[in-house]
Amino acid sequence: MRAPDATDLARIAVFAALIAVLGLPGSFPVFGGVPITAQTLGVMLAGAVLGPMFGALSVTVLLALAAVGLPVLAGGRGGFGVFLGPTAGYALGWILGAVVIGLIVHAGGRRPVVWRTALAMVAGGIGAIYALGIPVQSLVTRLPLAETALTSLVFVPGDLLKAAVATVVVTTLVRAYPRGFRREWATPARERETAGAGV
Hints:
199 residues; Arp2/3 complex 21 kDa subunit ARPC3; 8 helices; 2 strands
């Protein structure tokens, strides 16, 4: 991974701020009154746009600010106690989620496409986060892992909605402003052959 320059640092800060802003409304009910927050949407976008390492760094910055007491998590929460509660695993899972999303979206240095972006949002934005969140929640609440996983399924529809929104945003950004990704994508083999033939 290349060292971040001033522009990269600014973009990392912007996405950390975006995740914080998305948490300002707190939770809101969807799908029969199930409360969700929009901050995972920001995590998804950070991983897809900034890539795995810078995306994870933006999330880490946000969590560090929360740890020192700034109210940057959903509903104005902050303080180290957040990382000792039942949702601690989900928050830490954001870092892993951003890495997984970035790796899949930009796999092989290729330009993001709809199917790969959607896969990344589900695998990283839901699967990776739940993989850390559910065991920690089970440990803190002392509920069986299977029961904790079952109760967490109620949040999946809301997370799928955020994954769909993130996919639309990213694929639109690829077409409208590819420079926003700050990376050069690999040229398809057919285009390279054409260029090499001088056609």
